[in-house]
Write a structure and sequence with these properties.
The protein is an alpha/beta fold. It has helices at residues 16-30, 56-68, 85-93, 96-99, 116-125, 156-190, and strands at residues 3-8, 34-39, 71-77, 103-109, 133-141.
Length: 198
C-alpha cells in the first residue's frame, strides 16, 4: 500500500502549510492510501554544517519517516520569492537513501499571488543527488488563507483548489505504484553513480 508523507515546509509553529498538509493527508486517506505529516516548524532540524547532528534520536526518527514513505507531497510556502530554508535543509541532511526513485508532488502556497518561484527553485536543483522524481504536475495555491479552512468549500476558488488537489493526488498515487516496480533495481544501479550529473 502507498505510504504518502506530506511535508509541511514552513518554519513557523502554526502555519498555512500545516493546514494544507493536514487537508492533503485527509484526502490521500480518502483515496485509500496511508498518509502522515512531517511538520518542519515543529521538527526543527539543525542547520546543516557537515558536523554530526546534536540530537541523533531526532534525526533517526525523521529518517525512519522518510524511509517508510513511498511518495511525498512537499507543501512549501513562498517567502520573499524563495523556498524557505527548512526544506532545502531537509534535502541536504537526507538524500538518495530516503528519496531516490520515489515520486513527489510539489505544492507551493502563497498568501498572495506568488508560488511559482518555489516550484522552479525546487525543480531546478533539489533532484540532482536526491534522485527524487517530481511529478510533471504541481500545485500552486494562491490566497491560501481562503482555501481549505472549513469542511466544505466556501466559494468557487476554494472548490477549484480542492478539485485540483484531488486530481494531482490521484496522479501521485499512480506514480507511486508504478515506481515501486522499478525502485529496487534502480537503487542497485545507482551504487556505481551515487551523484547526479551537472
Amino acid at each position: 500500500m502507498s505510504q504518502v508523507l506530506v511535508i509541511a515546509a514552513s518554519q513557523q509553529k502554526v502555519s498555512q502549510s500545516r493546514k494544507v498538509a493536514d487537508y492533503i493527508k485527509h484526502q490521500v486517506e480518502n483515496l485509500g492510501a496511508e498518509a502522515d505529516v512531517l511538520d518542519l516548524g515543529l521538527n526543527v532540524l539543525p542547520l546543516w554544517s557537515g558536523e554530526p547532528a546534536s540530537d541523533p534520536e531526532q534525526m533517526s526518527a525523521i529518517r525512519a519517516q522518510l524511509d517508510g514513505a513511498s511518495s511525498f507531497v512537499f507543501v512549501v510556502p513562498e517567502w520573499n520569492g524563495m523556498a524557505p530554508p527548512a526544506i532545502k535543509n531537509l534535502l541536504t541532511w537526507f538524500g538518495a537513501g530516503q528519496f531516490a526513485h520515489k515520486p513527489a508532488l510539489l505544492c507551493a502556497i502563497s498568501a498572495g499571488q506568488g508560488g511559482a518561484f518555489v516550484i522552479a527553485e525546487l525543480r531546478g536543483s533539489s533532484y540532482k543527488n536526491s534522485r527524487i522524481c517530481y511529478l510533471p504536475e504541481h500545485l500552486i495555491i494562491r490566497s491560501v488563507g481562503d482555501v481549505v479552512g472549513s469542511e466544505n468549500p466556501t466559494d468557487q476558488s476554494d472548490s477549484y483548489y480542492r478539485d485540483r488537489m484531488d486530481f494531482a493526488l490521484k496522479d501521485l498515487l499512480a506514480y507511486d505504484q508504478a515506481l515501486a516496480a522499478i525502485r529496487p533495481a534502480a537503487l542497485e544501479r545507482m551504487k556505481g553513480f551515487t551523484n547526479g550529473m551537472s
